[in-house]
Amino acid sequence: MSYLSFTDEDHLIIKSYEALVYGIADYLGSECEVVLHSLHDYNQSAVVIANGHHSGRKVGAPITDLALRMLKELENSGAKQSKSYFTRGKNGQLLKSSTIAIRGKDNKIIALLCINMNLDGSLSNFLNTFSPNQLLSPENNVKENFANSVEDLLKNTIETTIHEVDASQEIPHHNRNKEIIRLLLERGVFQMRDSVAIVSNALKISKHTVYLHLRNYNNNQGED
Question: What's the pTM?
Answer without folding.
Answer: 0.67
